């Protein structure tokens, strides 16, 4: 059996002569729907049509690729071959703003659902969005959410004029760092909740985070703990500047992850700690962290640390400390 990638490679690079040669061999080099898709994905529409005319297998992935390219003649060829098409075919056309392809697919009664307006919104294609509303295509909050991911302000404004619900739009805009869209959402009176700041902090969107706090968006309490666990010093510094709450859970998170430098910085700004930090370090095997915590007089429960110690070195050190404490009594 021949190399299954040869025909795909030739199609990808638009090499019709190579394809003809490969297929003239005995046995012919293998091909399949991926071969047609490779040609279509790379704009070699003539190659794709030659493949279809020569009975190369096709499937729904080829239809999605043709729709994404807005290639109506190829979609027609595929329909003639009986190629299956589903809602994701329509969504592919919508994502890339190919209204003519969508209109053709509708004449062929290809199912269209919430994916289509959501895809149009992600690509910022307001004309396609308007058409989906004209034909009464199903729509839900995913359209606003996709507009948020793509930072498509005009699409969001259109969707809100038509009454589409917010869903997770604000949080997603923060997650993806889409500040202009967040400004528009604020102007349109979207709800700004604590998860929004958390999303911005999670992805280190510091400009977004500062803006959110400036408009009064609340913290949800998880931002500092997450940043400490992941060792994100710039985020922690920004959160401190914005007067986020630093409580013992933050030191515990840093200890659990073995972030000694973070712990040292946290203590430098006066973040409190308690015995949970020592227990977390012991459980996760971070001996250096536990030793530092005890050196700076962090409270601990020696019995708990002994119970959860996961390495021989940790267990030995904890037991040594127990003996030293008993001798000091």
Automatic annotation (TrEMBL):
Gene3D superfamilies (UniProt xref): Ankyrin repeat-containing domain (1.25.40.20)
Record field: transmembrane: none
Source organism superkingdom: Eukaryota
InterPro entries with a match to the protein in the record: Ankyrin_rpt-contain_sf (IPR036770), SecEffector_AnkRepeat (IPR052050)
PANTHER family: ANKYRIN REPEAT-CONTAINING PROTEIN (PTHR46586:SF3)
Protein name per its UniProtKB record: Ankyrin repeat domain-containing protein
Organism: Tribonema minus
Organism placement in taxonomy: Eukaryota, Sar, Stramenopiles, Ochrophyta, PX clade
């Amino acid at each position: 059996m021949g190399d299954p990638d040869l025909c795909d490679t030739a199609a990808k690079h638009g090499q019709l002569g190579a394809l003809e040669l490969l297929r003239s061999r005995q046995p012919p080099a293998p091909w399949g729907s991926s071969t047609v898709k490779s040609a279509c994905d790379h704009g070699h529409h003539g190659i794709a049509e030659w493949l279809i005319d020569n009975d190369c297998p096709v499937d729904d992935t080829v239809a999605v690729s043709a729709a994404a390219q807005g290639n109506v003649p190829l979609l027609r060829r595929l329909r003639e071959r009986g190629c299956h098409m589903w809602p994701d075919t329509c969504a592919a056309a919508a994502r890339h703003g190919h209204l003519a392809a969508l209109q053709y697919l509708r004449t062929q009664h290809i199912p269209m659902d919430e994916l289509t307006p959501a895809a149009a919104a992600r690509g910022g294609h307001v004309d396609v969005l308007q058409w989906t509303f004209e034909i009464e295509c199903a729509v839900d909050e995913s359209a606003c959410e996709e507009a948020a991911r793509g930072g498509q302000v005009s699409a969001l404004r259109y969707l809100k004029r038509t009454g589409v619900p917010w869903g997770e739009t604000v949080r997603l805009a923060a997650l993806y760092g889409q500040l202009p869209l967040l400004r528009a959402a604020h102007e349109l009176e979207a709800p700004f909740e604590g998860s929004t700041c958390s999303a911005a902090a999670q992805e280190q969107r510091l400009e977004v985070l500062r803006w959110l706090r400036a408009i009064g968006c609340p913290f949800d309490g998880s931002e500092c703990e997450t940043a400490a666990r992941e060792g994100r010093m710039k985020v922690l510094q920004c959160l401190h500047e914005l007067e986020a709450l630093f409580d013992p859970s933050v030191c515990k998170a840093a200890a659990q992850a073995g972030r000694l430098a973070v712990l040292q910085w946290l203590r430098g700004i006066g973040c409190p700690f308690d015995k949970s930090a020592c227990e977390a370090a012991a459980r996760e095997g971070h001996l250096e962290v536990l030793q530092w915590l005890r050196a700076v007089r962090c409270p601990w429960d020696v019995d708990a640390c002994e119970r959860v110690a996961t390495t021989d070195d940790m267990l030995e050190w904890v037991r040594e400390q127990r003996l030293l404490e008993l001798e000091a009594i």
